[in-house]
Amino acid sequence: MARAGRRPGPNETREQIVAAARTQFAEQGYDGATIRGIAAAAGVNAALLHHFFGTKQQLFVAAMNFPVNPVDELPRLLAGPPGELGERIVRLFLGLWAEERSREPFLAILRSVTGNEQAATMMRQFLTRVVLSKVAESRGVPPIRAAAVASQLIGLVLLRHVVRVPPLADADDEELVALVAPVVQSYLTP
């Protein structure tokens, strides 16, 4: 059993927890990894994980180096007028990919999930449980519609930022919002 309290010496505990979490999520997927298991792998008490990260979701976000926490963004996205949800989602998504500091981690995640089955499983479980199910439930639509939103947006950024297909790569955000938001809105309209 791990000792309670602060470790002696330099405090690298947070980084050790994140490293253990990455390993546990990669080996067991989002669903299979547990706070207790991650704590044991890091050699700390589970309460310390809650102290640093709060929840398993927040630990996953930190371990995957997400520039934003999707769990924090969902309430803001869902709070506005329902008829403008598609536009809010597309604007947020394009905005996150527009900034170099947030684009790089997303590109790394995108590349890892397309080339590694463990990473794909982990991301699939997280997206399904934590993001897509919540969006579908809040809008009263079948889960396949929320998944279609994700496919639309991932396809857009893949062609725009990875493959760099013109004119998508050269279009300004407003043009893309006008083009894609109505499609996203149609998926989320019961």
From TrEMBL:
Alphabetically ordered keywords of this record: DNA-binding
Domain HTH tetR-type intervals: 11-71
DNA-binding region as annotated in the record: 34-53
Ligase among keywords: no
UniProt-listed InterPro entries: DNA-bd_HTH_TetR-type_CS, Homeodomain-like_sf, HTH-type_TetR-like_transc_reg, HTH_TetR, Tet_transcr_reg_TetR-rel_C_sf, TetR_C_16
Top-level lineage group: Bacteria
PROSITE patterns: HTH_TETR_1, HTH_TETR_2
Keyword DNA-binding: yes
Coiled-coil regions, chain positions: none
GO molecular function list: DNA-binding transcription factor activity; transcription cis-regulatory region binding
Protein name: TetR/AcrR family transcriptional regulator
